[in-house]
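re: that complex we talked abt at group meeting.

here r the seqs, copy pasted straight from the sheet so there may be weird spacing, ignore it
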Amino acid sequence: QKNKRTNMMSTSISICTRRLHLHKRYLSSLTLKKHNEYYETPQNAKGAFESAPAEPNIDALLPKTNMNLVSSINQTLARILETDSSAIIFGQDISFGGVFRCTINLQNRYGKDRVFNTPLNENGIVGMAVGYASTGSLAIAEIQFADYVFPAFDQIKNEASMFRYRSGNQWNCGKMIVRMPYGAVGHGGHYHSQSPEAFFTHIPGIIVMIPRGPVQAKGMLLSASTSNDPVIFFEPKALYRSKLDDVPDEDYFIPIGKAEIMKEGKDVTVVGWGRQLQVLEKACELAWKNHGISCELIDLRTLAPWDVDTVEASVRKTGKLLVSHESPVTGGVGGEIACAIQERCFLSLEAPIARVCGLDIPFPLAKEKEYLPDEWKNLEAIKKLVEYSK
Amino acid sequence: MFSIARTTLSNAGRRVVNPSMTGIRSMSSEATFDLTGSFKTHNLDIAPNNEITMSKEELIGHFKLMYTMRRMEITCDNEYKSRNIRGFCHLYDGQEAVATGIQAAFEPEDSWITSYRCHCIALLRGGSVSTVLAELFGNTGGMTKGKGGSMHFYSKPDNFFGGQGIVGAQVPVGTGLAFANKYNAKPGEKMNVAIGCYGDGAANQGQIWESANMASLWKLPMIFCIENNHYGMGTSIDRHSSHTDYYKMGNHIPGIRIDGMNVLAVKEGMRFVKDYCGSGNGPMYVEMMTYRYHGHSMSDPGTTYRNREEIAMTRSTRDPLEFVKKTVIDAGFADADEIKQMEKEIRKFVQSEVVKAKEFPLPEPEALFDYVFAKDLTPENQESQKHIRMPDYAKSFWS
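got the structure back, here u go
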């Protein structure tokens, strides 16, 4: 084991078979480039100001490997550990891979000093991440389920988010990622299905990111590792194994704070994130097939700070907005989006903004189907929006 | 009332190296002081030395520092009462020996994180009286440019991590600092330590137990320093803690109780603790027996839950400043007149620093939005950060 760990020739951990090729690739780029080093192309160099680097052209990044979300996150974490010698990963049970196997084989390869288990102390885990990150080192803390993050909420709100601000930019705990699986999974019940993103979007000073699949997860996690602000990274646990996608082998960075228009359309703007996008895709398909309604589907990707300009431009085009998320409707992120959009383009709206979200109850076990905003509820809302605007 | 070993002025356990010189203004430049009875250990086979040798410059330096702290805190008191300092103000007078002793024993590379009672520690680590006071006034001349105020002093060059408002929250963060120190330590060398200071009221916070568990599990060089001033805000120690021997609170984690009114004992004790933790033996609980004269904060008179007699008695018998003064005089380093002269100078100095601190301007309104996020998320040469959308009414319908 020890020889394996120290031997550079055996750096392959992926589950795919092209080990030699990956190894060569990794050898050639052993440092993560900063965002702008990738995108110094003529088009971008002369362009208008960008607060975040340009979108990577994922289709052009070859070669690719087909994998699920777990493998994507696993390989990205390995990449981060490889390129940043100060990076550590810690959390409950992660040494054998964690409950979802996102951290599998990392301890074997990078050692117990860098990938290790912690006791069952969320507060202590995140607090320790804050302290470690404030020395300029990368701390990746894992909370086993997003439902358990609340003992650590004080550390995130009162320590992590304010560290830079209150010290007048002397100290910061920017190199910190708190990863946690979130979302409904079909049988989770009260404490394995929650989506607490709304609590975190209310905190100025942190970044909240939610990927919708393996491709986005890799780009967003790499961006998070080079960002200078603490990142809360929610991973949709329902998609861990089920969502397969072709992930480029090389490094690419998805810009923080930018939304992505997944599908262009002209009738209704539909906004979602994470796992809910799967549901929304189905709803948009149904709307198109059965009713001829063309929906523009937007993945917010970053919830805090969120890309209000993209959504606004889309609403100006379509005039109708639908926001959908799993967490309860009252106080959810949908309310924030609705209010900001109506402030900005009230006269462009042809119908009241619709929010199709979970009910205002604790996440139920038995009646999960009735609770969740599925594609039928969303379809109804889309139809209603179009009816209203006629 | 206090069942601890404490060095009172009457118990002048100070033995001078050159007894023939006692009482005469001596030319000796250093002396040895006796510290018996200042330490109590738990789960430890070794203990700090029972005596400490200190040079004249050092001891007089400690005295000057402590007196500056005392004058600064009294100035804060007056300024708060004349409403120049707003918000919260938690004063450290009575506890000066703790901060001075720890700083004397530590290197600049050791990380220090503390609670909201941090004015004096900020003074030691990167601040001057004028920057500390300017921060309290909310000026741009302050240590954090007026952003934090009383509870939030930081200094990157001096490894001082503040200044935290939430009770007990600094301890897990301190454990992270200790982890970083262990991670970055070179093999064969002593590790830098991290000290997290908190009060007896905070000592029962859940997150402190969590951090102690992790620090002990992974043998982190973390010092859990409890500044036991016997009151958790307005509740006395017997009424808020079922276990008042805080140095034993770590259970199998070794602990030491130090007389926090004796700066010499604090220095020697912390030297011992730093040595122990920096050698990879794991964390240690340090309890400093000390006292605060003011209330918990400026909005607390401090007399509704304790007697004035108790405060007066502590001032007359256990005051750290008086102790150092007497030690200096008895060791022959200076006589009473010289000390009076030093005090006068320091008073004048602090007054001039107050005037200097008041001259700084208040921060600009744009500074409200500075440093919420890191700079690379915000564009250069742009007026307001794009991602902070309040108030972004330029784009809203009502503009």
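couple things i noticed - The longest strand of chain B covers residues 222-228. Residues 223 and 236 of chain B are 24 Å apart (CA to CA).
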